[in-house]
Amino acid sequence: MIPFVDLKTQYFKYKDEFQAAMASVLENTSFILGGQVKDFEDTFAVYCETDYAIGVASGTDALHLALRAVGIKAGDEVITQTNTFYATSVAVELAGAKPVFVDCTPDTYMIDINKLEQAITSKTKAIIPVHLYGQTAPMEAILEIAKKHDLLVLEDACQAHGSMYKGKRAGSLADIAAFSFYPGKNLGAFGDGGAITTNNQELYEKVAALRNYGSAKKYYHDCFGTNSRLDSLQAAVLSVKLKKLDAWNLSRQRAAARYISNLQSCESITLPVTAEHATHIYHLFVIQTETDRDDIIQKLAEKEIFCGIHYPVPLHKQKAYDGMGHKQGDFPVAEAAGDKILSLPMFPELTDEQIDTVCEELLKLL
Ligand SMILES: Cc1ncc(COP(=O)(O)O)c(C=O)c1O
Question: Alpha-carbon distance 228 to 305, whole Å?
């Protein structure tokens, strides 16, 4: 069996380290905002090359609280790409604002910088580029447009732990950034978790208050805030994993190179493209195929090879956004990609033999 993501192999390989880290929390009963959280935040900030990192309860909360920290409110518009996970846009709604969608490029699936400016109105306050699948968005062009229109930029780095743009880490490229530690991410917890990174002390302090009831001193509430803390058990696990992240990302890059070499001669497969400026850390290995995708997924599953689709329906066509009045054809690149994309198994422990089996079975079907 070749799973889409294999969390068990990794767990059993490092079980003793994980259990020792978790025991340190249990034995100190330091469950909420214990020392493990601050330790992780400090090392994650160093890793991301930012002055600050702050743990929160999920990637969705990281996006939502980052938007609130930069002052997004009801009546504002926030631009993002239509081909992302629903969390990117729901975070905008949670902040009271309206998500505005832009199409993506056909090769890298990044927000299309040539269509970005058309989406800007007098209500636009921020842009959320998504470092989708593990490579960074074209930040230089995005930041230039943002500067011209006086907009804030929030990186959705939920799929890009350790990814780079022109030698700089994802998370350090704009005003503020959001990460998810959902278990299947390149850096994943044993439950939900997230973090915000920034170089701006004021934003850091705002997020610190927002994640903990607007409170710097217990039972004194200086501003609006909620309960969105990264818990100490997750932080302890993440600290163990952070030390291994670069090696795991390298393993993913090796796996991607093998997939590419095995599949490049097949004309009915479009392989992933890495932009010149980017370092891809392959959170997902996404191909496109002209052949009936559902049939391929089913036939591979019969061989116990499991694939995914990220994501089958762009946000502007989701039922939840019926009220926005979008129609088929509004964002043709994302719509066409949504019908053809297929995510092959990808995780650091994926063996050469497993990759070769996936490719062999896939090529038989095409
Ligand atoms: C691009 C993107 N944004 C946001 C999120 C939300 O993160 P979480 O599931 O931790 O809330 C995810 C992960 O699921 C994601 O892939």
Answer: 37
Question: For the chain, where do the domains classified as CATH 3.90.1150.10 start and end?
Answer: 245-365
Using 50, 70 and 90 to split pLDDT, how confident is the model at 291? confident
Which of the four pLDDT bands, split at 50, 70 and 90, describes residue 185?
A: very high
Q: Is 158 touching ligand 1 by the criterion CB < 6 Å?
A: yes
Domain 245-365 in this protein, CATH class:
alpha beta
CA geometry: angle at 170 spanning 165 and 171, to 5°? Answer: 140
Pocket test for ligand 1, best of 60, 90, 161 (most atoms within 8 A of CB): 60
Ligand 1 and 87: CB distance under 6 A: yes
Strands annotated E in the chain:
52-56, 77-81, 98-102, 124-128, 152-156, 164-165, 168-169, 176-180, 194-198, 269-270, 278-279, 285-289, 341-344
* Dist. CA 159 → ligand 1 center (Å): 7
CA 107 – CA 337 distance, rounded (Å) = 10
Neighbours of 223 (CB within 10 A): 12
Quote the pLDDT of residue 216: 86
pLDDT tens, residue by residue, 50-80: 999 999 999 999 999 999 999 999 999 999 9
Q: CATH assignment of 7-102+110-242?
A: 3.40.640.10
Q: Answer yes or no: is the C-beta of 88 below 6 A from any ligand 1 atom.
A: yes
